[in-house]
């Protein structure tokens, strides 16, 4: 029987030994010195006397070459004799401080690979051969456990690739330890110094798992066995490298690998998983167990069990472990700055929600919330949002989301009330968590999902604790003003906002949270919760106590953010929302009606506060005196009393500080802009009461730019197109508003009324608006100015408004005058051309030119001769015209000289005086004939001048300068055109003008008002004769050159003498100037 077993053995040689035995002996002789050298090196390493020598490397090289040259000669005995020292060497190096060099380790790996390859190719395997394989694989596992060598990951990949190539031939008992060692390689990936090797290793592990999944050795159970530890290592890997931008590829590959592992083991389409899910649904006790699972439990398989069993206990434990791991990932990846990592995380969440939704039981609702949060946050990424996925959300998820919101609201309230330094990131996290949860709930509560989630809706409506926490949290928010008001660089020092946080990231997170909450309120059909929250914050806004001012400001901002969140929902005109829209419209209009009084708070000065040290008797006396002065100032209108009065300085003590007041107005402007966006054209009726109050702040140094933006937004939302159309449509209302604010029946006038009038004229246009805003309002302003000129700031505001209005009117008048002069010049030019055409000489010249052009067509002429002839012709024509005009002037002068000589013979003094008077009367009559009837601009200018001239005696230098500027603008723009209207006005205030030295240069530059400064006509006539003698001498000199000396030249000389000059050299200029002035 033994012989039968040795049939296949080779025949013995004549010496008694077979050829195979002889070869084995020879091979042993070659192996022996190398193995002895390895054992010697092992002794050296154990004694730690010195490091490994070059003899070890040479021995391994010799062994590797022997195995390559004799691949089929290694029996189990030789294999054992070769591999044993190498295995012992590897074990020794793992326990000592002297690692094996990578070159020696590579040679050892090659030896093991060749030996294992030789055994795997044999068709029949004996017990000795199986032991040989076990020894080789044990040595290979020793290499896989080495993590202290240089570049260990590349060597591990090498050995692992060899294992995969031999995987189908390996015994089943080696599968688990081998791949357990591969999974233990994950800690190597956490070494930042081997980032490139880590990426290669993770790619190889993915390849290993893929290779396992298509093998024949129960791959699902095998990978299921590796799932808990591998998933844990992957999550740790992702968390470690998520903050390093250079390791994004490694993080993305790890997430993808984790997704593959979970789906490969837990996909609901797997038969055993489907059976487990059915058993869960049929067993109420199991559901209760799942609800109470709080901590994952570890499964210890029996020692004899190679692969775990996929049963109900395994499913519960795996889901619990998976939930814990994904919760760790959610905090790191949901808000990751890298979009590719966020996309991979979103893909993982989406896939899990689609493939294993029934496994995410109520006990795991928190992780489902986190997954759906990631899905909603990445709606705008490249990965589209699957609407079918939202419909598959269970009812229990909504309840879990509400619990999460409640817990996070408590945390937000805690952090807002007890603010700790450098903990803003935690607050941002909780706000974002609330934002994500509410966004998910509102998607569930939309119309196409409302029927399926009615229980969630009822839960929200009855959850008053949640609303209470919401209000408490939001009332603790500290506002930030950097984005509230458009601050100009030159106005930064005008206002200071105290006790406000400057962390914009915190405010952005809170703003998103509030807007998300408000965005969802519109989906609640009965609106009970929505109006309840809105009305609460609205009532807080109306509180005016000083200790509640900050809380009131917070409420304005919160109410604005809530409305901004519901803007998009309000535009949908569904039948089910009509009642809700009507209620909201009424509420929003009531907000405007009740808050508009905030803009009407008087900016005017109030009486000075009473000194606390005064007695009651002093207080009464002072009040009586102040009341008497005020009544006296209101009742006295004559010039003498006006000159004696001085402006009364009154202090303005508001209950609210200036910073909070500006802040409140700014927040209210934003709120009104948001309301107009929600109401659209329904906001138009509100404009009738809103426009004037907010226009009062049009010249505010801080709020002006923001106000213009808000007005543009309101005009766009209310379908007016632009601000000009909106103002023009409400111009009548604005005129009535200005008139009522200037009424003398009021205690104090509105200081901003004239400013608003100027803004309206500027926006609508002078020509379009002056007919409505002009004469009537100016008269009412004059009445208010007469009664309230003593109020601090009112007189100055009126003068500033008048300067602004007259400036715009003056520009229009100058433009019209310029256009009229241009048209007049064109008409005169056309007339001159017609006259030249009719003149005989002109006709002769034209005929001569035509004749010469005709000759040029027949006879060739030189260009230079032609130019010279045309120049000669022009010179002759000019000389003829000059001679003709001089002859006409001389003839006229001779005739007039004879008449003047006859007059002088009778009475030279009377004749000159009469001539001056006759010429002036003639000029006045000609101007009166040419003057057009007084227009609207002129009437308004005369009214303004008549109202402002009395204040030339004001004690304030600024007031006097503004009055002079008004008069100057009127004169320069020819708004005061008729002496019949102006001279009586100037005579009325003659004494004021005479005492005001500053006003004289303004009037002296205009000739028609020069006579107004003559103090005595007799003094003027006393010097007339001496002036006339100088005129006579000048006239005689001019007669020699035949130049006419008429009234024009005399009048110009008289003006020069009047101003203090001495053009005639007679020494009378200064005397005459002193007499006149």
- Rg (CA only): 53 Å
Estimate percent helicity: over 70%
Class of secondary structure makeup: mainly alpha
Range of strand content:
under 5%
Pfam families: TTI1 (PF21547)
InterPro entries: TELO2-interacting_protein_1, TTI1_rpt
Provide an overview of this structure.
With 1077 residues, the protein is mainly alpha-helical. Helix 5 (102-120) packs parallel to helix 7. The chain is built from 51 helices and no strands. Among the domains are: 393-487 and 500-570, no CATH class; 792-1007, no CATH class; 1014-1077, no CATH class. Helices cover 70% and strands 0% of the residues. One of its GO terms (cellular component) is cytoplasm. Pfam families: TTI1 (PF21547). InterPro entries: TELO2-interacting_protein_1, TTI1_rpt.
List keywords for this structure.
single chain, 1077 residues, mainly alpha, 0% strand, disordered C terminus, TELO2-interacting_protein_1, TTI1_rpt
Quickly describe the structure.
70% of the residues lie in helices and 0% in strands. With 1077 residues, the chain is an all-alpha fold.
List the helices and strands and how they pair.
Blueprint: H1 2-5, H2 19-47, H3 54-69, H4 76-95, H5 102-120, H6 127-144, H7 152-165, H8 175-183, H9 186-189, H10 195-213, H11 219-241, H12 248-266, H13 271-282, H14 284-291, H15 312-333, H16 339-355, H17 365-377, H18 387-391, H19 395-417, H20 424-444, H21 447-450, H22 454-461, H23 464-475, H24 504-521, H25 528-541, H26 549-565, H27 567-570, H28 578-595, H29 616-635, H30 639-644, H31 658-679, H32 687-695, H33 704-717, H34 723-729, H35 731-741, H36 753-764, H37 766-773, H38 775-788, H39 794-838, H40 840-858, H41 863-906, H42 908-930, H43 936-948, H44 957-972, H45 979-988, H46 990-995, H47 1000-1004, H48 1017-1022, H49 1024-1039, H50 1047-1058, H51 1069-1076
Helix pairs in contact: 2-3, 2-4, 3-5, 4-5, 4-6, 5-6, 5-7, 7-10, 8-11, 10-12, 11-12, 11-15, 12-16, 15-17, 16-17, 17-19, 17-20, 19-20, 19-22, 19-23, 20-24, 24-26, 25-26, 26-31, 28-31, 31-33, 35-36, 36-37, 36-39, 37-38, 38-43, 39-43, 39-44, 41-42, 43-44
């Amino acid at each position: 029987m033994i012989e039968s077993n040795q049939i296949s053995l080779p025949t013995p040689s004549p010496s008694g030994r077979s050829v195979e035995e002889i070869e084995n002996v020879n091979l042993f002789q070659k192996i022996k010195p190398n193995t002895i050298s390895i054992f010697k090196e092992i002794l050296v390493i154990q004694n730690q006397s010195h490091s490994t020598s070059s003899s070890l490397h040479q021995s391994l090289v010799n062994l590797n070459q022997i195995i390559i040259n004799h691949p089929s000669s290694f029996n189990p005995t030789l294999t054992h004799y070769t591999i044993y020292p190498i295995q012992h060497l590897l074990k020794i190096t793992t326990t000592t401080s002297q690692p094996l060099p990578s070159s020696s380790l590579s040679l050892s790996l090659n030896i093991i690979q060749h030996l294992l390859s030789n055994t795997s190719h044999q068709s029949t395997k004996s017990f000795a051969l199986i032991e040989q394989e076990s020894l080789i694989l044990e040595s290979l596992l020793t290499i896989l456990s080495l993590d202290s060598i240089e570049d260990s990951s590349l060597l591990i990949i090498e050995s692992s690739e060899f294992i995969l190539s031999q995987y189908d031939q390996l015994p089943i008992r080696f599968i688990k330890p081998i791949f357990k060692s591969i999974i233990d390689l994950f800690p190597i990936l956490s070494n930042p110094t081997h980032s490139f090797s880590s990426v290669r290793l993770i790619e190889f592990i993915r390849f290993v798992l893929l290779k396992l999944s298509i093998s024949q050795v129960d791959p699902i159970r095998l990978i299921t066995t590796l799932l808990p530890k591998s998933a844990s290592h992957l999550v740790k890997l992702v968390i470690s490298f998520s903050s390093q931008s250079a390791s994004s590829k490694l993080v993305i590959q790890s997430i993808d690998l984790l997704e593959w592992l979970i789906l490969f083991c837990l996909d609901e389409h797997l038969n055993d998983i489907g059976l487990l899910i059915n058993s869960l649904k049929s067993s109420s006790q199991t559901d209760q167990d799942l609800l109470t699972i709080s901590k994952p439990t570890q499964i210890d398989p029996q020692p004899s069990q190679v692969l775990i069993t996929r049963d109900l206990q395994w499913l519960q434990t795996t889901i619990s472990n998976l939930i814990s791991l994904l919760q760790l990932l959610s905090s790191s990846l949901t808000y990751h700055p890298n979009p590719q990592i966020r996309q991979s995380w979103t893909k993982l969440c989406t896939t899990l929600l689609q493939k294993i939704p029934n496994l995410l039981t109520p006990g795991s609702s928190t992780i489902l919330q986190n997954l759906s949060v990631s899905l909603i946050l990445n709606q705008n990424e490249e990965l589209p949002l699957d609407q079918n996925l939202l419909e598959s959300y269970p009812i229990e998820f909504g309840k879990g989301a509400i619990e999460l919101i409640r817990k996070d609201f408590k945390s937000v309230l805690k952090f807002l009330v007890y603010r700790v330094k450098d903990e803003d990131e935690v607050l941002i996290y909780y706000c974002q968590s609330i934002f994500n949860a509410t966004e998910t709930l509102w998607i569930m509560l939309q119309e196409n999902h409302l029927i399926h989630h009615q229980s969630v809706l009822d839960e929200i409506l009855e959850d008053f604790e949640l609303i209470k926490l919401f209000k408490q949290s939001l009332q603790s928010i500290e506002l930030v003003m950097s984005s509230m008001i458009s601050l100009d660089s030159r106005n930064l020092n005008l206002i200071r906002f105290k006790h406000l946080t400057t962390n914009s990231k915190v405010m952005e997170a809170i703003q998103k949270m509030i807007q998300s909450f408000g965005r969802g309120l519109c989906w609640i059909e009965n609106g009970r919760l929505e109006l309840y929250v809105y009305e609460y914050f609205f009532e807080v806004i109306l509180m005016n106590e000083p200790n509640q001012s900050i809380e009131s400001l917070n409420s304005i901002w919160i109410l604005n953010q809530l409305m901004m969140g519901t803007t998009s929902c309000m535009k949908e005109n569904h039948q089910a929302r009509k009642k809700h829209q009507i209620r909201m419209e009424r509420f929003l209009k009531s907000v405007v009606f009740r808050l508009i009084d905030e803009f009407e708070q008087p900016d005017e000065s109030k009486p000075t506060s009473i000194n606390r040290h005064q007695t009651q008797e002093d207080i009464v006396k002072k009040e009586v005196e102040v009341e008497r002065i005020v009544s006296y100032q209101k009742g006295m209108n004559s010039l003498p009393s006006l000159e004696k009065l001085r402006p009364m300085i009154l202090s303005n003590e508001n209950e609210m500080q200036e910073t909070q007041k500006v802040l409140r107005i700014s927040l209210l402007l934003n709120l009104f802009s948001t309301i107009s966006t929600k109401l659209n054209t329904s906001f138009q009726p509100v404009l009738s009461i809103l426009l004037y109050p907010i226009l009062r702040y049009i010249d505010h140094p801080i709020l002006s730019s923001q106000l213009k933006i808000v007005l543009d937004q309101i005009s766009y939302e209310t379908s007016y197109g632009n601000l000009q159309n909106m103002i023009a449509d409400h111009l009548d209302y604005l005129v009535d508003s200005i008139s009522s604010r200037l009424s003398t029946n009021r205690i104090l006038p509105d200081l901003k009324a004239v400013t608003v009038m100027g803004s309206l004229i500027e926006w609508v246009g002078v020509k379009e608006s002056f007919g409505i805003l002009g004469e009537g309002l100016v008269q009412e302003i004059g009445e208010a100015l007469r009664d309230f000129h003593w109020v601090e700031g009112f007189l100055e505001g009126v003068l500033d408004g008048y300067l602004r209005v007259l400036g715009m009117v003056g520009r229009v008048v100058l433009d019209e005058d310029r256009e009229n002069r241009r048209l007049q010049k064109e008409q005169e030019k056309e007339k001159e051309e017609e006259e030249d055409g009719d003149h005989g000489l002109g006709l002769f010249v034209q005929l001569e030119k035509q004749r010469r052009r005709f000759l040029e067509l027949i006879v060739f002429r030189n260009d230079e001769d032609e130019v010279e002839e045309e120049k000669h012709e022009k010179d002759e024509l000019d000389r003829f015209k000059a001679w003709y005009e001089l002859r006409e002037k001389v003839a006229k002068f001779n005739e007039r000289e004879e008449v003047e000589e006859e007059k002088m013979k009778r009475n030279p003094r009377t004749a000159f005086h009469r001539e001056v008077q006759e010429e002036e009367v003639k000029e006045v009559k000609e101007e009166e004939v040419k003057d057009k009837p007084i227009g609207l601009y002129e009437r308004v200018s005369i009214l303004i001048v008549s109202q402002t001239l009395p204040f030339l005696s004001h004690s304030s230098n600024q007031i006097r300068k503004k009055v002079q500027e008004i008069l100057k603008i009127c004169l320069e723009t020819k708004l005061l055109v008729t002496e019949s209207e102006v001279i009586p006005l100037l005579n009325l205030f003659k004494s004021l003008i005479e005492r005001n030295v500053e006003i004289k240069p303004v009037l002296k530059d205009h000739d028609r008002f020069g006579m107004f400064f003559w103090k005595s006509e007799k003094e003027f006539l006393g010097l007339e004769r001496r002036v006339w003698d100088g005129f006579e001498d000048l006239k005689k000199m001019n007669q020699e050159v035949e130049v006419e000396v008429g009234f024009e030249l005399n009048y110009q000389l008289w003006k020069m003498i009047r101003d203090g000059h001495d053009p005639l050299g007679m020494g009378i200029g200064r005397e005459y100037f002193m007499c006149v002035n």
